[in-house]
Amino acid sequence: MHNNSQKQYSKDRRNKPVDFPPIPDKIYFTIGEVGDLCLVEPYVIRFWEHEFTQLKAAKRRCNRRYYQKEQVLLVRKIRNLLYQEGFTIEGARTRLAMLSESGEQLDHIAGQTTDVQGANMDREAKNLVAVEKIIEEKIVHVKDKALLKEIAGDIDEILSLIATVAGEQESVAENSVGA
Question: Does some domain include residue 126?
Answer without folding.
Answer: no
